[in-house]
Design goal:
273 residues; alpha/beta; six-stranded mixed β-sheet; five-stranded mixed β-sheet; 10 helices; 21% strand; disordered N terminus
Length: 273
């Protein structure tokens, strides 16, 4: 009898213990932490400082397409001669990305630790061309005969890469002194030169091939002779003081992608090989 009672108490105790666990397991399942929502990217604005000859490609297609891919990033642009942009970055311009129309300005900033050297890509190539107002007649048929024009427009060789390339070409041809003697108008950037010729303020001018094909107001007379100037390279890099280097790198990666290079090609640029 005693053993039966002991067995009954044992069974009852086991049942209580088992039943007592149910709320514990149920409670554990109920109180499990909920799955976290995917993190949302905080809005970021970055500034690209780019050569004036890049403005159309950036504003019309590259920046809009980039912002479609990375909707939390807003890209603002400032465009001018590469020399002016170099000076502005040296003076504290809050740019995140710099893209110049020549290696000189980029190398100067890298040398001063103002652009991160490891981020620099020599991305694009361009051509140097001689132009005239569309539909006008001229006796100028080549770089060699430019001094036959009454008025000549060039980018200022001190700060405008297109002007530097033009000077190199004229020095190579042995006519730089004659060009200077003609009293050329010196533009503060290549867009200014393009506008002067397009408006008829200058009979001829020297710009990039991409500029010449971007408007209907000018015609190309000739390309600069092969070997008369350095290769026209457009490098891009991240400004060392950038507050958003990760987003700046995303922009550079996009510019260097097949999609980005295809857009540049539509504007007359070619990939640097």
């Amino acid at each position: 009898m005693k053993s039966i009672q002991n067995k009954s108490w044992f069974c009852l105790l086991a049942a209580v213990l088992i039943l007592g666990q149910v709320p514990l397991f149920a409670g554990a399942k109920k109180d499990a932490p909920a799955q976290q929502e995917p993190s949302v990217q905080a809005p970021v604005t970055i500034l690209v400082a780019a050569a004036a000859s890049l403005r159309n490609s950036f504003e019309q297609e590259l920046i809009p397409q980039f912002q479609k891919k990375y909707s939390w990033i807003t890209v603002d642009g400032t465009y001018d001669s590469s020399g002016k942009l170099q000076t502005q970055i040296e003076e504290g311009l809050g740019a995140d990305v710099f893209m110049s129309a020549a290696p000189t300005q980029m190398n100067n900033l890298v040398g001063k630790n103002l652009v991160s050297s490891g981020t620099v890509k020599p991305l694009l190539e361009n051509k140097v061309v001689l132009i005239k107002p569309a539909g006008t007649a001229t006796t100028v048929t080549s770089f060699q005969t430019i001094t036959q024009a009454k008025t000549i427009a060039l980018g200022d060789p001190v700060s405008v890469p297109a002007g530097q390339y033009a000077r190199e070409a004229f020095i190579s041809l042995g006519i730089w002194d004659a060009v200077q003697a003609a009293g050329p108008s010196l533009g503060t950037n290549v867009t200014e030169v393009l506008n002067w010729v397009g408006q008829g303020s200058a009979d001829v001018g020297v710009v990039y091939g991409t500029d010449a094909i971007s408007v209907k107001t000018v015609e190309i007379i000739a390309e600069a002779p092969a070997g008369s100037h350095q290769k026209v390279i457009y490098p891009v890099g991240i400004v060392a003081a950038s507050a958003h280097p990760a987003e700046a790198q995303l922009l550079i990666d996009f510019l260097a992608s097949a999609e980005g290079l295809a857009i540049f090609k539509n504007y007359g640029f070619s990939a640097n090989n």
